[in-house]
Amino acid sequence: KFRSIYIDSIEKRIKEFNQKKNKTYTDYEEKLNQYNGIQAEIDGISDKVNMGAVELDLTKIKAFLSKFCRDWKNAYIRQLLLITRDKSREIGGELNRYQEMLNKKVEGIADLQEVVTVIEEIRKKEGTIEEQIKPYCLFSALVRQQFSESDIEKYKFASTSTKEEFDKQWKEILLKAGQSRDDFKNNQLEYKRKLYEDARNLSDLVKTLKEDYDKDGPTHQKGRVEDAIFKLGAFRGRVSALNAKWDAIKKGEIIFNTSKNEYPDLKEIDGELSVLGTLYDLYSAVRATKEDWKEILFMEIILCKSILKYSEVSRRWVVFFPNGAILGSIARKERL
Q1: 248, 198 in Cβ contact below 8 A?
Q2: Nearest 5 degrees, angle CA 121-CA 123-CA 126?
Q3: Given CB 3.0 to 4.6 Å as the disulfide criterion, which of 35, 84, 107, 329 pairs with 316?
Q4: Radius of gyration in angstroms for the set of CA atoms belonging to the chain, rounded to a whole number
Q5: b/e string for 213-244 if b means 16 or more Cβ within 10 A?
Q6: Cα gap 203→265, rounded to integer Å
Q7: Residue 172, Cα to own-chain centre: how many angstroms?
Q8: For the segment 138-175, what is each residue's pLDDT rounded down to a tens digit?
Q9: What is this structure's pTM?
Q10: Angle between helices 163-186 and 188-216 in degrees, nearest 10
């Protein structure tokens, strides 16, 4: 009747259990109740049994079975504890991210876009947050039901959040999101003014870039290729910085639903630098390969001019260069 708890493999059954997809609170509860039932059956066995004139003491056998039953139950409790901690960290991490984003100081259009995005996320989350917290609460209650106070302290489970703590944090997030939404509406004109100002400044920067590129870009470089490659890298850095500013402006245009600014010169230079970068990378690779081949050919010429002699004394094949230097030797004649 109790054969499975000391013959079967805990590791194997736990692995099979963990492979089951979309496990719920009831999956863990059924397993724990199963071993609670087995333990109840073990406890129900009399310590002593009379068989005719013989009295059998079953105390040690019961203790032996109880130990195996506890091992099985604790194995599933550990899995329950792991998933409960994971769910706690998942919910807590998401709520902490919301708070961090809402507390972020808006210093530019990019920051504003992040705040607006997180406010929209929170609005959508209002209808589903309870569905996310409820499973965790069920798992948490089951852990506290199965664990003793000493176990809760031992595994530091008390450090996980309660439903009340999550609810309190969520209310604070909703309040902060409402304040941020009001601030955004009140300062909308100022944000728009900053967007237009950034767009004008970018136009000036692109104009300067175009002038510098036409006058002294990598395609106008005369002399060493290395100098052209250096200038290519410098212009790539400037274009990358301007593209980052353009990306921020695009985000602002989406937020305020304004007309889009275009910078054709920036696009053209970016495309040309991309092509030049590919060509110069290919050139550098070919030049490096050419140098490698020079070394290989040089070694072949030396070997062709060398003399291979067999020494009867050492019974080795020896390679002699014209200048008398020895490249190496072959230990066995048959290897030649």
Answers
A1: yes
A2: 105
A3: 329
A4: 38
A5: beeebbeebeeeeeebbebbeebbebbeebee
A6: 10
A7: 29
A8: 888 888 787 665 555 555 554 567 788 888 889 999 99
A9: 0.55
A10: 70
